[in-house]
Amino acid sequence: MISRFGPSRSTETPLLIGLPGPWTAIAVAVILAIYPLVMNSMGEDFYISMGSRVLILALAASALNLALGYGGMISLGHAAFLGIGGYAVAILAKSGIDAAWIAVPVAVGCAAAAACLIGAISLRTRGVYFIMITLAFAQLFYYLAISLPQFGGDDGLPMTARSVIPGLPLDGDLGFYYFVYFTAGLAFVLLYRLVSSRFGRALVAIRENERRMAAIGYPVYRLKLMAFTLSGGLAGLAGALLANLSLGVTPHTLTWHQSGILMVMVIIGGSGYFWGGITGAAIFLLLEETISAHTEHWNLVLGALLLFIVLVAPDGVMSLRERVRALLGRKPAGGAEAQSSIAAGEKAQ
Amino acid sequence: MSQPILQVDQLVKRFGGLVATDHCNLEIRAGEVHALIGPNGAGKTTLLAQLSGELASDSGRILFEGRDITRLPIHKRVAEGIVRSFQITTLLPRLTVRENLALAVQARTGHSFDFLGTVADESDLDEGAEEAARRVGLLDLMEHIVGTLSHGRQRALELGMALACKPRLLLLDEPMAGTDPEESKKMGDLINSLREEHTLILVEHDMDAVFRLADRVSVLVAGHVIASGQPDEIRNDPQVIAAYLGEDETATENMQ
Amino acid sequence: MLYLILEQALNGLQYGLMLFLLAAGLTLVFGIMDLINLAHGSLYMIGAFLAAAFYQWLGSFFPALFLAIIATALIGVILERLLYRRLQGMSHLSQVLATFALILIANETIKIIFGAQPLMIGMPASLSGPVELVTDELYYPAYRLLIIAVGLVVAVGLYVLVNRTRIGMWMRAGASNPQMAAVMGVRIKPLFTFVFALGAALCALAGALLGPLLAVSVGMGESILIPAFEVIVIGGIGSMRGALVGSLLVGMIDTVGRLLLTFGLKLVVDGSTAATLGPTLASMMVSLLMVAVLFFRPQGLFPARG
């Protein structure tokens, strides 16, 4: 009996949809590894730091995607974890601890701990209340950051230098890019293993029907809390990298506007698709960069784009692949064609 | 006489001022098909939810094989062997039959917190899923999307999901709900075939089915059991007839 | 000290009542239409900007206020017809995103029309002075008293509307069980439009009234949106009484709580730390109160759905 959970299936159900094949992943990894070298040889160092930014926000969006897309937890407070990661690094740097191997794990740990605490309380609520309570928690951290002098108040905390790794100079754009590349890359491998594991499958199934999953014996609350905590920890990692990239953090990282932007990235890319957060962050930042060069009203364009996506293409860019396939009449996407073939099967009974 | 597998002792559930389960006592013997009947609003669904762990009880005790499970969460009760099915079909409609059943098997075998484990070897899940599918007659439809199946087949899968959890005590909430006579008969045969391996609590409105299938019947009125016994005893119990008269005449007729 | 607290209590009452104007509309839209409207604060901002524009044009406060309310209500109707009607029945995630988009669009449009500089609304000359409430001890600005008076009148008006009129009955039916209300023959679509227009008008009223006290600026909507959401969650979504009690509670915590916390902290830590920590803790207390309410009474203090 061939395992039907393998990647070679004709119909993709939500358990498998959007999981990348190995070749896609390798191709992306290679391109991203070569990218800064190409830019460097062309003398376009600005695009190297832009690349770092894309990778970092891709990680942040993918972290949110784990909770939002896979787990169905609509968190409007993920900026808090981004900010906690950033502030952890900046505070450590201020007190003289600049070794990356201490600062980054501490940042991840703080963010994960906060996510565990926030999740433990928030996951007892449902629907709109969950959205509101995650928002309120993020606001708590925002108020804390703007008013505690130790946190730099409105100005935030600048860093005099990036975290230190013996042997790898992070001050240059190229060195820092590869630091981000390997750190985020590791996180993406972890994320991939997560969503394709039995844990990930249970998480998606809980999103599909929580009551059923509880009735067949899944500890639903604990599974969701675990996903939320991991999601927060990974967002914290992105925050730590972001603070290093921009040499400091400001309370703006913690605003609910930032949480909204992360959510927008996930939706643009495709929530619940492995590449969703990455694609979304890349498209978002590229659009922002190009459009801002022509007009100062980027937010107007973004707003219009977002409205269009919500009203017309709510599954994001990653779903376009299947839509196109369905249009071309090739592999069905578990949609209309699968249904008709099943209808035929029913009749044949 | 076999030992009770489940004992419900003075169980209470309140919703605000309303007492839905009112000092309910019930005893289920190992290996029997025990029907739970009662007029609408008698609290059957509430009691079932308390037994499965979906609703917390306000007071009283539930003993499973002599051990107190009153405070156990749902997933621990499933691990103990108490599994329910739903009156309103509650499946994962966008997934295939195989995926639905495999999820139920996965819950039993654990590993759901195994983040990094490889998913290459699914043979254990496949075996369990196929075994459950065979029991409920869905083996030919394993790769079909659940949402596209007929209502009767979804009802069968509803039962299959519970079976895939390898329950010792099965709580069936109106398994015949919404099925046509033919599907209903099939479901009856299926339930009949389960009695060798499982103990069953059957909540059902179809009185024909109840009296055909049940070894014993308990009658729930206003949140507590007013009578328990063999189907024949229950049929002729004046209290039961009184409870049903005027409430639902067709039900009374069916009982006679 | 007593008069200081009393003055802050009046400020709290004034802030709370203005929050109530926003929360009332938000809670109705939330409760009746089951719609998360993040852009509710944008209507408040739009109302304030329109009031400022009309004020510059007319040079007079009350006509500007009146026109701003009408215009914002119209914008509300248009938005309801074009967008919100479609969002109803969509997932909460879609609603969050679409109304987030609306915030971005509103902020940017206002920036394009009015520029990035804050605008000013002059308060009516007759109300610009203080009123002596307690001889020689407590003076309070007349204009703020006007705000309190208007807030109270609107609160009473809304109470009468919701509890004593046919439309109000429909609203309550809609908030407690929309399907049932539709079955019972409540014409739900015109009701939505009405509720939305009413919510927008209340936003404009709050925005215009606060205009002379605050700078009318882009982003003012977002800063009041969070407290407004906290109010309706604390009070219970869909509940008018909850919105009122929640607003006053939040208003009092923010002002009196701030004063008392700062004062109390001065006993423990040095003055400057206390001065920064007090307001922080007060803001955090509102969020914490909401978290506590959600945790212990998830339906809010005055649940609309029974």
Low-confidence stretches of chain B: none
Average pLDDT rating of chain B: 87
CATH topology of the largest domain in chain B: Rossmann fold
Indicate the overall shape of chain B: globular
CATH class of the largest domain in chain B: Alpha Beta
Structural class of chain C: mainly alpha
Helix amount of chain B: 25-40%
Q: Sheet bearing the most strands of chain B, described? A: 6 strands, mixed
Indicate how many domains the architecture of chain C comprises.
1
In helices, the fraction of residues of chain C equals: over 70%
- Tally of helical runs of chain C: 11
Major beta sheet of chain C, specifics?
2 strands, antiparallel
Order of helices and strands of chain B: EEEHEEHEHHHEHEHEEHHH
CA-atom Rg of chain C in angstroms = 20 Å
Structural class, from secondary structure content of chain B? alpha/beta
| End-to-end C-alpha gap of chain B | 28 Å
H-E string of chain C: HHHHEEHHHHHHH
Number of helices of chain B: 10
Q: DSSP strand (E) fraction of chain B?
A: 15-25%
List keywords for this structure.
heterotrimer; A: about 350 residues; mainly alpha; 14 helices; B: about 260 residues; alpha/beta; Rossmann fold; 2 domains; four-stranded antiparallel sheet; globular
Describe this structure in words.
Chain A: GO terms for molecular function: branched-chain amino acid transmembrane transporter activity. Chain A: The chain crosses the membrane at residues 12-35, 47-68, 75-93, 99-121, 128-146, 176-195, 225-249, 261-287, 299-320. The complex is a heterotrimer of chains A (349), B (256) and C (306). Chain A has 349 residues and is mainly alpha-helical. Chain A has a domain at 22-258. Chain A is 70% helix and 1% strand. Chain A is globular. Chain B has 256 residues and is α/β, with parallel strands linked by helices. In chain B, 38% of the residues lie in helices and 24% in strands. The longest helix of chain B has 14 residues, at 123-136. Chain B starts with a strand and ends with a helix. Chain C has helices at 2-33, 40-58, 61-87, 92-114, 142-164, 166-176, 178-183, 188-210, 220-235, 240-268, 271-296, and strands spanning 130-134, 138-141. Chain C has a two-stranded antiparallel sheet. The model of chain C has no long low-confidence stretch (mean pLDDT 87). Chain C has one domain. Chain C starts with a helix and ends in a 10-residue tail after the last helix. Chains in contact: A-B, A-C.
